[in-house]
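Query structure, 787 tokens:
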């Protein structure tokens, strides 16, 4: 394609200006200022109560605002799920709870997300496009451009904030990946924690993913350690735990204040990696995937056509050349990969089961008839972040550390347990996205953005088990809910003028399956992948794929665009770019107009480079010395960055005459990290290179009792990713041990575990001690000095 001309740039600027004027004018149609100004006293004040007239304050319930019997709302969001994964949309994994919702309401076959988790979640809660609310990528990769900071602006109040002002009791369970990395510590700020986004209660984790057996639990703003068992006494699992808490909240809320409807946002950590689930769920699928991903695709599209969620004439898109054919694999690889898929299937099935317990509880309370249930099977397509060979430990993906096959073979019987942070191969993700091309991260094609959606509301939707084919997007959920409840977006919220909702309500589809689409245009962009839908056509420009880190840089302004007539070509199987060049040019220009309008510019295809903390605010920037008290926990975004950096860790302790032991300082755990501890009377430094290699340096002698300063001096070979280092241990100023860390973590120590002083939470950084390994002497302070 030819370079973009000056006229197009001028056109983009004009479009941007027009869009902002249009936005301002549109917002003037809203009716409310929220929160409402305090009303003046309408009674009478005399000298005493005898000659005065009181006015009893009103309960903050929907009836107070003229809303008659608004529905309860259950919004379910599954993580990293493909269109061809759930049985409800023809996948090979039975999902009876989603079937129940669809059979009691509607299936949507052309519903879309943004191709990545944080962006979809921001768009879902606000009803605006992800770049419009500064969430063009996950916050950990944010930059200083308006569409990418990761900071949802005050000008984009969430639907939860609006509903709370009308008397709803709001609770969020599961994953919150909308808190900027530097705001996740004990000092906040808490504007984008759950309560700042409109929820009265939160129970889950803050970040991208978490260990399902040892989650980084947060209740409201307080970090917790998980219990040993679920409420029924079974071994602990995170999805079961959040279901237990959600059920208890709903029952308690209805018991105490039945006048207040509930809004429950149930955002599981599943089926995002790590793929961890009780073994009995894995065994249900033993042997079911031995014929591989190619066969799965063929079987799935046949089921999809039979269900009617894919047209009879739809073509199955071919396997990308970069993914191997199943039949070409050695038998050992087939064994490992089939087992990884069995684990994933059990994880999916278990998740749907736990959602079912929540639906059952609502039914038992007699509230199901007037509960709007929105069940989204994915915030993006299935994840190919396991690479071509799958992973025992997802941290190896984020740090570009290879995992040998023999380690996977040795761990095959422990896949899905807390011993691994496993993720299946990219080709299984491609299979989960049947019948479409590509996967999560790839916003240009439906494999990254097309997700199954089921909606039921018996009181308000007359249809049962019907299919809806209108084109919709995740930004359409918020206006749908607001229309059902009967409220409008305020023109001003908390004193801040509001951006207009950019989504389109889907209510018009509820009782009219043949209704014309009201969403006629939608852009897509993620990590340089570009797409634009308009009036039944889709232009797509693929920039990069998750399992190929060696792809050459692209000219983001002159991509190899593809063209699909998706009204007739459901799966994007027939590229018409050469047949209709004028239509393609029209859509490419429209993409850039929409990009200007919604803060997508500047386009950016960088990945690991954007993970550099220098791109974002930091609590630690400019500091070279950090002193911490005992028993403090910090997320990685608030801890000093010690990666390939020389530093000294000093702990001022008093050891009793009987000796003492325990953790002095650690970051991470079983799947990557480091720790300085007293163990078996000796000073020990351990470095865990994502479980692939481990390095232990231990003092030659036992530590003396009394007041001492214990130190580890880490001297990096160079300030460069993967660099090795020399580590020297000291008691006071006496050298007591030395050794090497031959290779270090380059990008990210942990996704969910914390930087701990005086104890170890989450998982152990090395075997040989029991959690929480609290230091049994007196720990006065720990200082980290950057050298």
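Result returned for the query:
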């Amino acid at each position: 394609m030819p370079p973009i001309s000056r006229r197009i740039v001028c056109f983009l600027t004009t479009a941007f200006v027009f869009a902002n004027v249009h936005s301002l004018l549109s917002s003037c149609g809203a009716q409310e200022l929220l929160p409402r100004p305090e009303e003046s006293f309408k009674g009478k004040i005399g000298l005493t109560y005898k000659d005065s007239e009181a006015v009893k304050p009103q309960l903050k319930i929907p009836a107070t605002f003229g809303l008659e019997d608004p529905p309860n709302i259950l919004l379910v969001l599954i993580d990293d799920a493909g269109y061809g994964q759930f049985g409800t949309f023809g996948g090979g994994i039975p999902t009876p709870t989603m079937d129940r919702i669809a059979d009691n309401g509607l299936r949507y076959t052309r519903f879309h997300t943004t191709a990545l988790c944080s962006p979809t979640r921001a768009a879902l809660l606000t009803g605006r496009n992800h770049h419009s609310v500064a969430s063009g990528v996950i916050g950990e990769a944010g930059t200083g451009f308006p569409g990418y900071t990761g900071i949802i602006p005050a000008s984009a109040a969430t639907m939860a904030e609006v509903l709370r002002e009308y008397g709803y009791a709001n609770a969020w369970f599961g994953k919150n990946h909308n808190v900027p990395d530097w705001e996740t510590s004990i000092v906040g700020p808490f504007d984008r924690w759950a309560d700042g986004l409109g929820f009265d209660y939160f129970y889950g984790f803050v970040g991208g993913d978490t260990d399902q057996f040892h989650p980084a639990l947060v209740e409201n703003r307080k970090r917790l350690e998980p219990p040993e068992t679920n409420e029924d006494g079974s071994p602990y699992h995170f999805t079961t735990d959040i279901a237990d808490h959600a059920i208890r909240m709903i029952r308690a809320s209805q018991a105490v204040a039945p006048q207040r409807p509930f809004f429950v946002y149930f955002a599981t950590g599943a089926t995002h990696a790590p793929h961890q689930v009780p073994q009995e769920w894995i065994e249900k699928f033993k042997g079911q995937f031995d014929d591989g991903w190619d066969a799965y695709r063929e079987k799935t599209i046949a089921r999809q056509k039979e269900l009617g969620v894919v047209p009879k004439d739809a073509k199955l898109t071919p396997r990308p050349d970069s993914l191997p054919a199943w039949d070409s694999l050695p038998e050992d690889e087939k064994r490992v990969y089939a087992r990884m898929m069995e684990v994933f299937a059990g994880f999916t099935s278990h998740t749907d089961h736990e959602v079912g317990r929540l639906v059952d509880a609502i039914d038992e309370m007699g509230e199901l008839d007037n509960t709007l249930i929105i069940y989204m099977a994915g915030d993006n397509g299935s994840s190919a972040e396991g690479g071509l060979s799958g992973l025992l430990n997802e941290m190896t993906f984020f740090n570009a550390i290879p995992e040998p096959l023999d380690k996977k073979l040795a761990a095959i019987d422990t896949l899905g347990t807390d011993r691994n942070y496993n993720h299946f191969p990219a080709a299984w993700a491609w299979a989960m996205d049947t019948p479409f091309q590509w996967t999560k991260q790839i916003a240009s094609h439906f494999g990254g953005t097309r997700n199954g959606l089921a909606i039921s509301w018996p009181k308000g939707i007359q249809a049962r088990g019907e299919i809806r084919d209108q084109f919709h997007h995740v930004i359409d959920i918020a206006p749908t809910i607001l229309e059902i409840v009967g409220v409008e977006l305020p023109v001003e919220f908390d004193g801040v003028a509001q951006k207009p909702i950019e989504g389109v309500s889907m209510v018009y589809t509820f009782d009219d399956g043949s209704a014309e689409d009201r969403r006629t245009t939608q852009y897509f962009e993620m990590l340089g992948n570009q797409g634009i839908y308009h009036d039944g056509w889709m232009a797509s420009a693929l920039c990069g794929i998750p399992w190929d880190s060696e792809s050459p840089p692209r000219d983001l302004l002159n991509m190899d665009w593809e063209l699909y007539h998706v009204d007739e070509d459901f799966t994007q199987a027939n590229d018409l770019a050469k047949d209709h060049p004028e239509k393609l040019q029209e859509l490419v220009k429209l993409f850039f107009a929409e990009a200007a309008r919604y803060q997508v510019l500047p386009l950016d295809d960088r990945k690991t480079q954007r993970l550099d903390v220098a791109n974002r605010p930091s609590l630690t920037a400019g500091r070279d010395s950090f002193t911490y008290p005992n028993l403090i926990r910090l997320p990685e975004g608030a801890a000093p960055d010690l990666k390939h950096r020389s530093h000294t860790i000093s702990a001022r302790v008093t050891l009793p005459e009987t000796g003492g032991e325990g953790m002095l300082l650690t970051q991470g755990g079983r799947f990557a990290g480091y720790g300085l501890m007293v163990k078996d009377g000796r000073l020990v430094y351990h470095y865990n290179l994502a479980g692939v290699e481990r390095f232990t340096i231990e003092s030659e002698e036992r530590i003396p009792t009394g007041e001492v300063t214990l130190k580890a001096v880490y001297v990096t070979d160079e300030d460069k990713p993967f660099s090795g280092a020399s580590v020297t241990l000291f008691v006071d100023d006496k050298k007591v041990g030395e050794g090497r860390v031959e290779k270090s973590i380059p990008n990210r120590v942990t996704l969910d575990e914390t930087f701990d002083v005086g104890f170890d939470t989450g998982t152990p950084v090395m075997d040989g001690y029991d959690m929480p390994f609290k230091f049994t002497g007196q720990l006065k302070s720990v200082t980290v000095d950057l050298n």
